[in-house]
Amino acid sequence: MDAVLQPFLSFFKSKPGKFIIAGGLLIVSSEIVYELYLWARKPRPRQKSCEVFFINRRKLAQPLPSPQEFTYEHINRIISYINRAEKSICLAMYIFTMREISEAVIRAKKERSVVVRVVTCESMVGNEGSHLRDLIAEDIKVQYKYKSEYLMHHKFCLIDTDWYCANCLIEYHTEQYGEPKKNMQHTMFDKAVMSDRAGLLQRFGSSCARCNPSNRPKQAVPRRKKSNDPLPKHGVLIAGSSNWTFPGLTTHWDTVTISSLPELIDPFAAEFQRMWYELNDPLKEHATREPLYKTRRGMEGAHS
Residue 292: its pLDDT value, please? Predict the structure, then answer.
């Protein structure tokens, strides 16, 4: 056998043989590099910055989802975003009766130390199906305006978005709506901008990550394993016409929009803080134990 292989070994040891080997290796390595180049240039699906979902429509998926997955598609989508929250959840919700979402919010606070703030409507305080009482039991701060003439009818949630300091909040509202004037019909916030900026500074501080990036919190030790599907850098907005109820997220003619666009997030973030300032009567746990407002004028008919 050695005698048979010897001529081949001798050839490859010669100068022409070495050139052939080197040329072959060059061709193979060039092909590998080219394939890697094509792979790197291949377009990959990008995370959408804005998606709209219609509640009584479902996406057709393969394999077909189970009846439970089919029914809970929109509910599970909201829970998946809450489960990825690392910094904050700011929730403005008129009716909130979804136990599964309530449990996800509580987990975020208890397991990941997420700051949770909730604004709701006084007319829903006594709603026996509301899961506000579960949040309050976990020391989550829930606020509303006592005996307000108007409904807090918003349905939106901000996850891991920045929190304005008083200076940035005033600057943003002034840019968007102009400097408050004495001859205007003012809200409490407008009056504070005019005459109680010290109060706003006391409530919201004078510096934040928006005006001073060094204030952005840094985690030395991750609270949990890095998600394979992290939230966008500046968080997300979940907003629409749906209350967080079972029919509101499964069958009604309703919409949910999920966006990471700053042009959408910023107005909602500033508005939430305006409500946080104005609708500032803290909800007490005992207030949710009985339907206090069933007989209130105009509230007998349920708002959906």
Answer: 45
